[in-house]
Amino acid sequence: MAFAIVGVPVFFAMGLAALVFIAFSGGAVPLNIVASSLVQGMDSFAFLAIPFFFLAGELMNTGGITRRLLNFASAAVGHIRGGLSHVAILASMVFSGVSGSAVADASAIGTSMIPAMKEKGYPGAYAAAVVAAASTMGPIIPPSIAFVIYALVSDVSVGQLFLAGAVPGLLMGVYLLAAASWVAHRRQLPFSERTSMRAVAHAMWDALPALVMPVIIIGGIVGGVVTPTEAGVLAVLYAIVTSVFFYRELSLRKTWEICCECMVNSGIILLTIAASGIFSWLVANMAIGETLATTLKTLTDNPWAMLALINIALLLWGLALEPAVALVTLVPVLIPIANAYGIDLVHLGVIVVLNLMIGQLTPPSGVITFLTAQIAGAPLHSVFKEAFPFTLALIAVLIIVTYVPMVALWLPGVMGP
């Protein structure tokens, strides 16, 4: 944290922190651990899912798929009071089933929805807040880049985590829609004229290839046909075929440009994961997690009380750290604590990612809010203020998921191996 505060890039900050620890360990940790841990931190086939899901989301956004999803959602719910905010939330729910990234969702939906909402008379800050809140579903509704990272750090099944995120993700959507409805009626936000059933059917038909995409991806993983990494490749191929040959809105040159951009974005995350290999090795071999678990046991033996403490800690850390960084630094410490208190690691994974997503919506970091505020050209403090009702809705979902574990564990129990 000290290195990060003075502006050192996260990758170097984690590595330098580990080197400082090793230097003061009195020779207890051999220096060659740094090199081997850097390699082992990334030596996993499953990490290939990260660039592929990034790429699939960008291809959807550029190739006209996202626009058709928005058109269908607008035709279906645009006539409700504050209808465009409902459109943004529903579109994010569908888009989450492909991209697996909150930033990708916010960028894809925000660039289309925020200008449209402002044009219809919605305050720019409110439009930015709705899109930011809706994009938090991206890493919860499967597939999820955050779940891939958590799975590899914790040695938990990616498929089980994907299934565990489905019901909480839908619950987030329901609560966000309820919050949007409450705000819309309280502030008398605008709405569109009701669309005919024929127009709704036409919009749905036009968006059908996009709507089928999440079904193919999740169905392939759950059915054991493809691994999460192969599902990412499948998503990319489906997005290219749909955008280039079906909708005819994506050129091969533009596809290459998107590939290059996604390589850079993925590289930033993967460098951080590589550095986390050193951190994870130190946590495991120096018994840091076990020591912390033993200390906490002296405070309380109640797993429900411990879950409350974990939530508070994660919410605070989520305010300051990027999700990828928080996952690779906090999860190795949390696993011994969860094992000591009998907390299911799949359940913990959903709790961890949901906490970190709430942190992306709130100050001081609020990366998603920064992005949508920039798109809307709205003051950041106003966007944070407008996001408050949606933050409360997400915290309500967090409490439900934390203390009713079956919300997350029911689907893996029914469909998982």
- Main pleated sheet: none
Instruction: Give the uncertain stretches in residue-range form.
Output: none
Task: State mean pLDDT (0 to 100 scale).
Answer: 82
Number of domains: 1
* Count, helices: 21
- Rg over CA atoms, rounded to whole Å, is 21 Å
Q: Report how far the terminal alpha carbons are from each other.
A: 40 Å
Tell me briefly what this model is:
By secondary structure, this protein is an all-alpha fold. The chain has helices at 2-5, 10-23, 33-42, 49-62, 65-77, 83-99, 102-119, 124-135, 145-154, 158-187, 197-222, 228-246, 252-285, 288-297, 303-320, 323-341, 345-359, 367-376, 380-386, 388-403, 406-415.
What does this structure look like?
This protein is an all-alpha fold and 417 residues long. The protein has one domain. Helix content is 78%, strand content 0%. It is built from 21 helices and no strands. The mean pLDDT is 82.
Summarize the helices and strands and which ones pair or pack.
Blueprint: H1 2-5, H2 10-23, H3 33-42, H4 49-62, H5 65-77, H6 83-99, H7 102-119, H8 124-135, H9 145-154, H10 158-187, H11 197-222, H12 228-246, H13 252-285, H14 288-297, H15 303-320, H16 323-341, H17 345-359, H18 367-376, H19 380-386, H20 388-403, H21 406-415
Helix pairs in contact: 2-13, 3-13, 4-7, 4-12, 4-13, 5-6, 5-11, 6-7, 6-8, 6-10, 6-11, 7-8, 7-18, 8-18, 8-19, 9-16, 9-17, 10-17, 10-20, 10-21, 11-12, 13-16, 14-16, 15-16, 15-17, 16-17, 17-20
